[in-house]
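Hey, I'm writing a tutorial for new members on how sequence and structure tokens pair up, and I'd like a real worked example in the thread rather than a made-up one. If someone can provide the structure for the chain below, I'll link this post from the tutorial.
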Amino acid sequence: MESYNQGWLLLVGVLVTLNLPYSQAFWGNENKIKTAVYLSSKFELGPGSVGNVYFYNVEFPKGHIALKSFNAELVDEAGNPIPLYETYMHHWALVRYYARKGVEEPNDNKELHGADYISGRNGGICQGEVLSQFFGSGSETRKTATYVPDPYGIEVGNPAEIPSGFEERWFLNVHAIDVRGVGDKLGCMECWCDLYNVTVDEYGQPLKPEYKGGLLCCYDGTQCRLKQGFEGVRRTLYLKYTVQWIDINSSVLPVKIYILDVSDTWKRSSNSTGANAEHDCQVEYEVESCRATGLADDGCIDSKRITLDMPFSGYVIYGVAHQHTSAFGSALYREDGQLLCSSLPIYGEGKEAGNEAGYVVGMSNCYPKPGSVKISKGETLILESNYSSITHHAGAMGLFHLYVADQLPNPLHALHTVVEAQDSVLLSTILWVAVALMGVLTVITIAIRYQFKHKREDCYEAIVI
């Protein structure tokens, strides 16, 4: 009877384990995910106005941790989400930096400079501080997953990496455009210079005649043209952001963040290495109308491609693109044409925030099966960004975010990561069928042994061969 009970306990234990959340069943309780929700400082926008604001030393989890996700959205003073057709979220970005202890950041909405601040940027690959964020998004923010799959995490707060005399801090850049009452919403969202009546950039430098629209024309404080006679109130807004993380430990495999830009002007040379300093990411580009280019027969799809040599190596864990309205998706290929990762826009179909009709409200992402996508240092990859070219578009973006790990998880972690991926339903079913069959066999075996044992105890002799 003791064997019978032990068998059932084993079976029940296996079933209970499969019912546990992954952090308990595979990682243990020490990897429990923690969540915190914060609000940025407030900023105000009126109809047609632009806010491109920087919030320094924002609230953020402390200590040596591994980030699992970061999500954000615009809300009003009552906490209500703001729809894109009222305030368009051009982009937000979360950036790490190191500040000398005791030093306070300026309050004049300027970028940080000087010896009191050191960059804590991501892994690259753009020059300087261009696209240096850890997380960033735009209109797609509400329906784009940012979760880092187990057993991976973005390691931050490592005391060994913080310069002596400094501390790790974070800032948020929020670029939002109030499109209430504007005469041309798409034009204001794409930052056409004539709609903003702008001929110089925010530093007073004249714009090039060929520059028709983009970030240089919708900087903080600019105003997009309103419909004649429209009046509206200014309102207070906040960026609401949610952070998930776990405490760092030996079971966490760190990933590094890289951002590729299809408008990068990098060119291969005999002594190039692909290092950040060699790149010149433009961040945005123009899409010419197919009528103007004579390419209407191609379906009016503008496909921009760039070839890049990778300055890093590792396994791709996650990938997602950032594009604007009129986008048709982005993809990353090997030089031989093999697709590594693709990301497609999700367009809204309603009126509620997160489902605004005609706007890009999300981007699909890819979670490759463990070990299936490995990038080698120096390998040549091709980034492609597709937009509709029925009309001319300014300020188009074609960024691609990658999370890359140096090593793969052990088989137990790999099993669950696969279950989390696209085949999760099928694999879960197979696991349960396997467990059920094992359970049936175990019960039958124990029952036979139990009966056989008791028959022997009732003077039956065992057969000896």
